[in-house]
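Appendix B. Chain record.
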Amino acid sequence: MMKHSLQIALIGFISVAMFSCKKNENTNISKPLTVVGEPISDTVLPKKDASGNAIPLKGTMLAGKTYHITADVTINAGDTLYLQPGVKVLIEADGKSPETSPAFYVKGSLVSAGTKEAQNWFTVKETTNTPLSNASYKDDATNDPAYAGYWGGFQCGPDADLLLLRWTHVEYTGGAWGSNAADFGAKPGDARATVYMNRKSGFSKLILEDSWFFGSKDDCIGKCENTYVSIMRNTFNKLGGTGGEGVNLKSHVFGDVAYNFCYGIATNGLKTASTDGVNTIVNIYNNTLVNCGFRQTKATRNGSINTETNSGGYIYNNIVVNCKSGLRISWQSEKGKPSDTLNTSYGNSLTCIGRGKPMGGAEQYMIFIEPKQYTIKQPTDINGYLNGPTLANGTNDGSNNSNDSLKYDPMFKNYDVAVNSLNTAYRNAVIPTGADFHLKSGSPAIGVGVWKGGSGATAIPSKATAPLLMQYGFPTTVLSMQTGEFAPNVTAPNKDLGAFPTDGSGNQHVY
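Structure tokens predicted for this chain:
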């Protein structure tokens, strides 16, 4: 009996051991790469049919491969182009005409599933006709190749379902529109945005995560409409030659823009501007914006975070450094229409400005808050604006305290705000090598943001009188129906300000 019992025990032990080994082996096995449709083995695209017409593209671009794009690519409605991790897409383009500036026309879905370890790229190859930018081009919109507009970006039309770019580099966009410009609300010769979305019925989905956007002739994420957005933890750099925004969201857009780093953008880093009678609600939180707004010469275009016509949202926990102006809740935008102040809630942000060499002329110099707009300094804000009386139209007639220059330094780990304010250094659009925008111990931006565990001034805000804010939430829930690999990875507000909180969450990029 004892012998029999020992045999049973031994069998059980071996079974457990085998199960344990199998379990451990499984935890070390890499997840199989996703394949959508057929693998794409041809590396020169698009292929042509017997009549010489480009064949629409669908299927899976394979990990480790480099694909060459020689003409416009179309992804038909209902089809998906999927990029596995570690794919490089080289667009053969020179930006000299619409025909030599290929674009991706997305009528279905395009998913670039890069990873931190295996990032994806959409860029151009350096040639005599397509020189690339470098660190010597600090403030030269005329000659810097970053603003040349070599190719046409991602144009997502009336049937587009999804554009998802994850751990993906996108560079040198802005090639001019041709004869099909009117189909996208543009004119022939206009620069194409890096990303444009406007679904005819219902909503497209735009998910941009942990990606890099470098070099565009005008807007990067430009004039998107009828779109659900989740724009998280990206870097936007050298965007817009003499005008253009990093993110420019328009009519009927709902979602979140958070933990993004904007450096050297022509106009605003982040902007929402709907149309009269159409709502846009976008939460803008935990972003860091540096050196934005100085290539735009029009005086009332701001230079960091801007909301205009009938747009609102929760705007919290942002850091603005050496931009043309801090947050602007517009009374009168370019179109003469005000922001949706009812459905706007903001605060807990830091704005720091230097006092280098003034530019003069029509260019507005650095200020904390633009007077005679709806924006006022909130009790939880950290900046040198002095609230004034409320005017008859509801705007604030306050002023900026020039003696507060650099008083509100956020104390980045490796970026000297004072040095980068001297003379015209604030116009430099090159991110210094090794710069680190995390916060040093003792930073005034630590522990003062709104977050889920906060209380009092740091509690997640609620505005019961604002029906749309209550409906969409903070963060929003508009993309919660997405599941699996194609779902957004939303990072909630942090108790620290900016895109790089001290707990290591948020933006993961290294410069």
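Further analysis of this model is presented in Appendix C.
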